[in-house]
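Pair request: fold both.
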Amino acid sequence: FAEVAARDAALGDDGVVVPLLHRIPFQQALLEYLGETSLFYALHDAPAQVDRLLSLLDAQLADILPRLADLPMPYVEFPDNLHGLMTNPRLFRRHALPAYQRYTAVLHAQGKRVGSHTDGDVRPLLALLAESGLDVCESFSPQPLTACTFDEAWEAWQGGPLIWGGLPSPYLEERTSAEEFEGFLDGVLERAAQRPIILGIVDLFMRHN
């Protein structure tokens, strides 16, 4: 906690440190332990073992999250890298939605806001993310990076989560005209007059941008 506070103080008004949690159990299994193909085979061939792994990872997070009560930070984030084709709606509804709802309840009780790194195509997950308890979808990447348009997410998340991102990096490339870029940005800023957004470049700010 002291290291986090020191780094935050060093940034001053130039930014804010975002403490990253573990990924939620399903995303850990998908991205860290088994990988996409192996996990999908395991869900079919060995569901009891997958459930056991997810249960152990859930118990670990259930132990960690209450320990953050004394962390003096207003915001924490799951680095989940959500993508609606990998963690599809059926899998999300079973494995991610109840996990998010439990974890965010713990963190909200500590006075913290909670986000997830959602840099993939979340179009299939828009309605489910609205039920998740998440306060922020960070690195939201709309078209042309994914199939999801900015307007689709904006309408689906009227009651939250808040969008952090929204400005796809291809709009900063030479192939995009100034008129197209400014038209997109005007639309975003018009909506931002209605409710907050943290406008940022997604998913990466590359040299050619």
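--- second member of the pair ---
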Amino acid sequence: MKNLVQDFSIFLSATPHWNELNVILLIPILSGLSSLVVSLVMMKRQKKQSPESAKSMGCLTYGMPIFSLWIAFSVPAAIGLYWIA
């Protein structure tokens, strides 16, 4: 039983890298995708309330998810998991 638990463990203190294909690589990608979804929902909601302020959010809509993706690859995987939650 101990080997089974050890095989499915995720080391959240490890920093994700592109050269290692493992489960930890999904955490920054999911972090960026979840940030993009939240940005798109907020942009759609903002257009309904005040169309003039929605124009100013255009850069942030795509800039913040890219920034989130970049930061999630620079820090331990636990922080990316926190951003997803």
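Observation on the second member. The longest helix spans residues 26-49.
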